[in-house]
Amino acid sequence: MATIIPAAFVSDVIDGAIVILKESRSGIEAAPLEREFADDATAPASHGIVSAALTGLCDQRAVLEQIAGLQAVHSLQDALSNALARRELSLQYQPIVDRSQKVIGMEALMRWNSTEYGQIPPAQFIPMAERSGAIICLGAWALEESCKQLEKWAGNAKSAAWTLSVNVSAHQFNHWSFVGELVRLVEQYGIAPGRLILEVTESVFLNTEGNRLQGSFQRICDAGVGIAVDDFGTGFSSMGYLRNLSVSRIKIDKIFIDEVVKSKKDQGIVEAIIMLARALEVGVVAEGVETAEQLTYLKSVGCSAFQGFYFGRPSDIAQFL
Ligand SMILES: [Ca+2]
Known about the structure:
Organism: Achromobacter veterisilvae
InterPro entries: Cyclic-di-GMP_PDE-like (IPR050706), EAL_dom (IPR001633), EAL_sf (IPR035919)
Number of strands: 14
Bound molecules: calcium ion
Mean pLDDT: 83
Protein name: Oxygen sensor protein DosP
GO molecular function, one term: cyclic-guanylate-specific phosphodiesterase activity
CATH class of the largest domain: Alpha Beta
Strand content: 15-25%
Pfam families: EAL (PF00563)
């Protein structure tokens, strides 16, 4: 007996491809829709129904659980695609401090408070937005909000010299309109040189062709916008891009800071990154600093800027102004 399941229950977008669930020898597997219905004019997208051959041979409960799981992801993805229009997104700010623990800047962090699902952690919705492509719109929104914030800060003596770091995904960075839009925002909001910093992970260097990357970096640099390498040391830490591209800051990933007071290995890595940053004349920020001992150690090896719960959690900007 075949079970008929509405397409919305069994189709989902995984890595940009629509998939359906189909029975296989090992149970139920996801298969790309295009492949399954390549020659079929009556593809499920057109009549809205997928007939899945779920016979007594497979475990119906496991199938229903998989379907429920996919349905939940699907609904959350739908909600995410409406989050901007529903004004459910906001930015929180986490301070970055110097050696005397004076605030020198902030990192803007995206938060999603869904009317249907409540607070969704960034670790859940950011990768989802990356997969669906929604990150392009979300990232553009965060960038413009950050520029508005910098414009406000410029008029306040306390915040006028602060920098604002904005996370930019590789997907967003590589979008054809990104650099042009960035330059437009810098002009529109009168962002002073050095105030805005884009935080990119090393994946940007992996997925972009060298000449194009160099061109983008140069235009960003010419617009007075800095580039920080985020989570340094956890990805593809090629020295080539540090040599060829105008990077203004390196952020040491939290995983090297967590145990740094005790771990000789972490100390070796952290000290090497600080020496590298110094030799290249780029700034260095230690991320994830949570204790006085970590701060004392990091200062003793020459780190110049710090970020983490020890100095402040991500909060509404009103907390800091
Ligand atoms: Ca970051």
